[in-house]
Specification:
- It is built from 4 helices and 4 strands.
- By secondary structure, it is of the alpha+beta class.
- The protein has 2 domains: 80 residues, P-loop containing nucleotide triphosphate hydrolases (Rossmann fold, 3-Layer(aba) Sandwich); 50 residues, no CATH class.
- Strands 2-1-3-4 form a 4-stranded antiparallel β-sheet, with helices on one face.
- A hairpin with a 2-residue loop joins strand 3 and strand 4.
- It is globular and about 40 Å long.
- It starts with a strand and ends in a 14-residue tail after the last helix.
- The C terminus is likely disordered.
């Protein structure tokens, strides 16, 4: 696959009460390696939804997508090793500890802190001395 990003007929909708909001409707495109590509559009056009699908934070209702040759659903762990997503708004819950926030977001992905410690070890080691959050949960070294 020559494409860095490939999106094929991706559709995503959300239910708000009894109403269905269509965020993405059968969107398809490819971004080739080395190509610069941008998404522009008004608020509500689906840009953030698409980025969340491509970064494996959200599932599409229909369609397929690949990032760096990896399929976003079945090969999500490979994509997460290569891609990061920084939302425009602060996403952590300020009334939770660092450990509680990490644990909460891990459950959203049906995983645990222990199972994925190797993925967050370098980041966790930078913050572990800021408080006792999680020290007993994560082994040193």
């Amino acid at each position: 696959m020559n494409a860095s990003v490939k999106v094929n007929n991706v559709y995503k909708s959300f239910k708000t009460g009894k109403k269905e909001v269509k965020a993405l409707q059968e969107i398809s495109f490819e971004v080739n390696r080395g190509e610069l590509f941008g998404l522009i559009g008004p608020d509500g056009a689906g840009k953030t939804t698409l980025f969340r699908i491509l970064t494996t934070l959200m599932l599409a209702n229909k369609g397929e997508a690949w990032v760096d040759g990896f399929e976003v659903v079945s090969q999500y762990k490979e994509i997460r090793k290569r891609v990061g997503y920084m939302p425009g708004r602060f996403s952590l819950y300020q009334d939770l500890t660092v450990e509680e926030n990490i644990s909460f977001f891990a459950t959203l992905f049906n995983t645990s802190l222990q199972e994925n410690y190797d993925l967050i070890k370098s980041i966790y080691q930078q913050i572990e001395h800021s408080g006792k959050e999680g020290r007993e949960l994560f082994p040193a070294g």
